[in-house]
Structures are given as structure tokens and as C-alpha cells.
Specification:
The chain is an alpha+beta fold and 418 residues long. Helices cover 35% and strands 33% of the residues. The protein is built from ten helices and 22 strands. Strands 4, 9, 10, 11, 18, 19 and 20 form a seven-stranded antiparallel β-sheet that branches. Strands 1-22-21-3-2 form a five-stranded antiparallel β-sheet. The protein has a four-stranded antiparallel β-sheet with strand order 12-13-16-17, with no helix packed on it. A hairpin with a 2-residue loop joins strand 18 and strand 19. The C terminus is likely disordered.
Length: 418
């Protein structure tokens, strides 16, 4: 029973079953919102998902062990095993020096031979399982690292301005650089606004770093990247003191809500400089360098005041409400990630892709085996190829005259016709 369980766990059929179950769970979740996030949560944070995921890791480990052991262990040969090979021939035992002939032929073909008075085993491509093993090892390392990452990863995200200290560490945000244009044309509902040109300079006591929205930068064991950009806008209402508000209204079309000193909400968004129409296409032109805000709020009478336009360093008065804006600046939202498993994730990816590249060698690097067993009356000679079996059978039967004649000239002839 125990052997049957081990055989099942280390089988390709078990691999296929686990992969089908994981794929089926994803297909089922595609009928819901945000399926990928729910699928990741199912795999790493539910008992059923963990059983499937860990089961697949165990299966891959078992496969590596089983394949390596079967290929590296010393080969044995019997009459029955030869009959189970791709092809075999049976010759009378009266051929002189047949064992020496087979051994000489195999060595000329580049086979490693193991000979005895009762058998000959010739093997080629014994280590050809290594590319697949490397690929599976990469998957094992990657999947294990992802599992640990799901539970050990710590993520922080906050808004910072120039001069701020990051997350209580001795890391300071010294400058924010952006390429916000004076003319930004947005066409359609989806914005093409990107953070590609945004960067921030971080400084420690000994070194200066630059972070962007792209690949994260490692600083003191943590990874930092920019996830958002917005306007930091000083404002005052009436005679109240000036306050600073971080307005998250990028990309254009996004709306943010501020709280006035009275406690009332103030809605703010970007207002286009002009609207351009060409046929069925409508585009809105925004000035992101000196933004034009559109604000809405309720007055004391509870009436909605909408669509008031104002720029930085300007003031507007509407009834009893007087709103003044100061000079704006930029803020960035920075994400900090601590993930002790990240180096193993990169290692797993490297091993996996290395295995994939080396898998191309399997077109010409594969196992070939020829065996012969001597009895009192007959000699059974069998041949097996891991791939291209039909071609292997044809070649083997072209070579059999070597074993029938046992002459050196036949050996050379078979060598040239291979």
C-alpha cells in the first residue's frame, strides 16, 4: 500500500490531476469580479488551495527523485526486459566472440558499456534527464518561495513630500521629479496618463538612491517604488488658517474630496482647458503643470455649488465663502516591501528559465540503451530509444548484420551507415 502511494505521488498522472484542479478553480472564479486576486487568495489562504499547491510541490520533488534514481541506478537486464524494449532480435548462441563484437560496436557508437559473461549493457545519454530536473527544481524553488512570500511579505504604503522621513527610517525624500506637461490630451474614457517620467531621490547618511514607478530599488533590505503622484495644495477658507491638502486627482478624470474647516466636504477634480471634437472622437486638453481645479461644495443654506474654477495662487469668492489657494507642489505615494523570500523567487525564476533553455538539448541528447543476454542456446539483443523510436528501430535492424557476422568489416559498415 505504501509503495502504491509513493508511486502515485511521483507519477505524471498525479501532476496532471493537480494542474487540472488548479486550472478548474481559476476558471470557476472567472465568473466573479477580480478573479485573479481571488484565485491567489484561494491558493495561499484556504485549506483546499494549500493542499493542491503543496501537493504539487511534493509531486515535483518526488518526480525529480524518482527520475534521477531510475536513471542513475545500475541497470539490470533479463530476457523479459529485453522483450519489453522497442525492438529485439534473437540469434543462435554459436556466433563466435559475439559479446566482444557487441561491446566493440557499442564503444564505437559512444556507448558506456557494462559487460559480463552472461550479458552486455550499452548505455548512452545517461544524464540527459538533467535539463528536465533543472526545470522542475526551478519550479519547486519558485513555488516554495511564493508560498513563504505570501505569509512573510510585509508591505507599507504612504504619502510623502520633499523633506519627509520614510516610514520612520533614516531615509529622507530629498526631491521629486516629474514630466507633467502643460498640454495633456486625454481621449476617451480611459486615461493614458503614466508614471514613467516620475522619480524621487532618497538619501541616507551615506548614499543617495533614485526610485521610480518601475522596477523597485533596494535600500537597507527593503524595496521601494512609486505607486502614485498627486498635488500637495495649500488652501484657506475665509479667515481660517492655511491648511495643506494632498489632492489625489491624477490621472485626469479622478475626483478627490477634502474636508473644510467647517467639517463640510469639498469635491475637487481637474478641469480641462478645452474640449476638442473631431468626428465621433472627443478629447480633453489638461494643463498638468499649472492645473485648473474644478471644485464643488455646499453653502450654509445647503445648496450645492458646483463647477467653480480656480488655479494655484488664485482666490474665488462665492457669497460668504472665500477660498484661496497657495503655491502647489507634488507628493508621491511610496510603497515599501520587505520580502525575505524574494531572492529565492529570483533564484527559482533563473533556474526555471535555465531549464527551459537546456530543454532544447533534448532534441539530440536523450537516452539510448542496447542490451544483450547470452543463454546456452540463444542470444537476445534489444534496443531502446527514449525518443524517435521508429527511427531507432530502423537503425537497429540495419545494424543487426554486425551481430550476425561478428566481423570487423561489418562493424565499420554499420558505423558508416548510422
Amino acid at each position: 500500500m505504501q509503495k502504491k502511494i509513493i508511486r502515485l505521488v511521483s507519477s505524471w498522472q498525479f501532476t496532471l490531476i493537480l494542474l487540472l484542479l488548479l486550472c478548474t478553480s481559476y476558471v470557476f472564479l472567472t465568473f466573479t469580479e477580480r478573479p485573479y486576486e481571488k484565485w491567489i487568495n484561494f491558493i495561499f489562504h484556504t485549506p483546499a488551495g494549500l493542499i493542491l499547491y503543496i501537493g504539487l510541490i511534493v509531486n515535483l520533488i518526488s518526480l525529480n527523485i524518482r527520475i534521477a534514481c531510475s536513471r542513475l541506478k545500475r541497470k539490470t537486464v533479463t530476457l523479459e526486459s529485453i522483450k519489453n524494449m522497442d525492438t529485439y532480435i534473437e540469434l543462435p548462441a554459436n556466433a563466435p566472440h559475439l559479446g566482444e563484437t557487441i561491446t566493440a560496436w557499442a564503444k564505437k557508437k559512444g556507448f558506456h558499456t557494462d559487460t559480463d559473461k552472461n550479458y552486455v549493457i550499452a548505455l548512452k545519454g545517461k544524464l540527459s534527464f538533467l535539463p528536465g530536473t533543472l526545470f522542475r527544481t526551478g519550479l519547486i524553488v519558485l513555488m516554495t518561495a511564493l508560498l513563504f512570500s505570501a505569509y512573510l511579505r510585509k508591505t507599507e504604503e504612504a504619502v510623502f513630500h520633499e523633506g519627509d522621513k520614510l516610514f520612520g527610517k533614516n531615509i529622507y525624500l530629498t526631491s521629486i521629479k516629474s514630466n507633467l506637461p502643460e498640454e495633456f490630451l486625454q481621449v476617451g474614457e480611459k486615461s493614458i496618463f503614466k508614471l514613467n517620467g516620475v522619480s524621487a531621490t532618497l538619501s541616507t547618511s551615506t548614499k543617495t538612491y533614485s526610485i521610480t514607478s518601475g522596477f523597485p530599488t533596494k535600500i537597507k533590505g527593503k524595496y521601494y517604488r512609486i505607486t502614485n503622484l498627486g498635488f500637495s495644495q495649500p488652501f484657506s477658507v475665509g479667515k481660517s488658517p492655511t491648511e495643506n491638502a494632498d489632492i489625489d486627482i491624477l490621472p485626469p478624470g479622478k475626483t478627490d474630496t477634502l474636508t473644510l474647516p467647517s467639517g463640510d466636504p469639498l469635491t475637487i477634480t481637474l478641469q480641462p482647458e478645452k474640449t476638442i471634437k473631431k468626428g465621433l472622437i472627443t478629447g480633453k486638453l489638461y494643463n498638468l503643470k499649472t492645473p485648473l481645479y474644478s471644485i464643488s461644495f455646499k453653502n450654509k443654506n445647503g445648496n450645492n455649488i458646483e463647477g467653480l474654477s480656480i488655479r494655484p495662487l488664485e482666490s474665488i469668492a462665492f457669497g460668504e465663502v472665500d477660498i484661496s489657494l497657495g503655491k502647489n507642489s507634488l507628493f508621491v505615494k511610496i510603497q515599501s516591501v520587505y520580502d525575505p523570500a524574494l531572492v529565492f523567487i529570483y533564484t527559482g525564476i533563473l533556474l526555471t528559465f535555465s531549464g527551459l533553455i537546456f530543454m532544447f538539448s533534448r532534441f539530440f541528447w536523450y537516452e539510448k540503451q542496447m542490451c544483450a543476454v547470452f543463454t546456452d542456446k540463444t542470444v537476445l539483443i534489444g534496443y531502446r530509444k527514449e525518443f524517435y523510436k521508429k527511427w531507432g528501430i530502423q537503425k537497429f535492424h540495419r545494424w543487426k548484420d554486425v551481430f550476425v557476422s561478428g566481423t570487423e568489416s561489418s562493424v565499420n559498415k554499420a558505423q558508416t551507415t548510422d
